Amino acid sequence: MAAPCIQSKMASDMVIQKYNFMSGQNISNLRPLQQKSLDGLMRQDVVASLPTGYGKSLIYELLPFWHFEETGKPAIVLVLEPLNVIIEQQMQKLKEVSFFIGNSPHSEFDKDKTMFLFAHPEAVIGKPEVYKFLQSQSTYMYVAVDEAHCILDWGHEFRPIFRDIKQLRAVRPDARFLALSATVSINGISDITKFLGMENPQIIKTSPLRSNISLIVLHRPGRKVSTHASYDYVFENIFGDLKKRKENYPVTLIYCVGINWVGYGYEVAQRILGDDMFVGNRDVENARVVMFHSSVGRYDKTKEIIYKNISKRPDESPLRVVISTIALGMGADLRHVTTVVHAGPPQNIEASPYSNNCSCMRMTSGDQAHKKKAAWEEANE
């Protein structure tokens, strides 16, 4: 018999009160689709495709409390994350009730206190000692797959373990699965449910059309000029305007396809801005323009400074333009970004970091526009 769902406002408020006390947060109430997701997880697997800024992580953060309110029994949540930065942010928030499955020996695990297990899929899947550890837990378990679109984006050759997460079905047959993502197409949701071994999951999603985002499509030179000249058309306009407006320029992301074009954009910025590349000393903390790609991500200090500066209010940070591959997005606080420029059609239309009012500018040639049209139409079905 299916467990009843929390219906009373009093019960829901009790869950939130316990969570706030544990985490130091100040959540006043749940959004409708957060509550719908939690209620659904009491009965079945759930796929929740909710906009950036909606509060997807709060769903799994409340799960142990919600489960206890429903059943009177404790529960633990295994959270699979793609990036260290997300794990670090969540563990800082959840503090002593969280445990990282990685370098920490399992002997340090406190079963009476821990509510959340965080890990990369590679640290869990195919690891007999971890499987044994998970099976030894007597409490009910949920598996939350955060940024679930990575199963589709990275599951071929880059990080193939993402497509083997369903092995956990055999390790903990009792566990219910929660898949979270900001924007996934209908076909993408179908593929995610298959790769996670979900049978008849509850699908909770909103339209990818967002009133806080305006989409502007501008044509840049196509076949008649070189690729460098085509990119110059994008970069020179942006950095020329930045040189004039300086601190009054809006915080902007420029997404490029590949590290080479990120580096080229940075060279153009140096040529146009000169000494105006920095406010004061010539170091990353004082930079108006930075570049971000997978190699930068290996240098924790540089990455930390970029993430810190882009998360600040514009009047508190010199940073105005980040030239990046898709490496920048997940785990970054982009609430102050107001302009996003795709220097060509984005390779993945399902990745979207935009949460506040934002203009998304797509610089494309006619040939590229035709190639991507079908994909854009599918994402907006």
Task: Please tell me about this protein's structure.
This is DNA 3'-5' helicase. One of its GO terms (molecular function) is 3'-5' DNA helicase activity. Its EC number is 5.6.2.4. InterPro entries: DEAD/DEAH_box_helicase_dom, Helicase_ATP-bd, P-loop_NTPase. The C terminus is likely disordered. The longest helix is centred in the middle third of the chain and has 19 residues. The protein has 2 domains: 197 residues, Rossmann fold; 167 residues, Rossmann fold (3-Layer(aba) Sandwich), CATH 3.40.50.300. Helix content is 36%, strand content 17%. The chain contains 12 helices and 13 strands. It is an alpha/beta fold and 381 residues long.
Query: What integer is the average pLDDT?
Result: 86
In terms of structural class, how would the helical and strand content be classed? Answer: alpha/beta
How many structural domains can be distinguished in the coordinates? 2
Instruction: Write down the CATH topology of the largest domain.
Output: Rossmann fold
CATH superfamily of the largest domain: P-loop containing nucleotide triphosphate hydrolases
Uncertain stretches of 5 or more adjacent residues: 368-381
CATH architecture verdict of the largest domain? 3-Layer(aba) Sandwich
Largest sheet: 7 strands, parallel
Order of helices and strands: HHEHEHEEHEHHEHEEHEHEHEEEH
Shape: elongated
- How many runs of DSSP E, i.e. beta strands? 13
Radius of gyration: 22 Å
What's the helical proportion of residues? 25-40%
Q: Mind telling me the CATH class of the largest domain?
A: Alpha Beta
The total count of helices amounts to 12
- Major sheet: arrangement of strands: 3-4-2-5-6-1-7
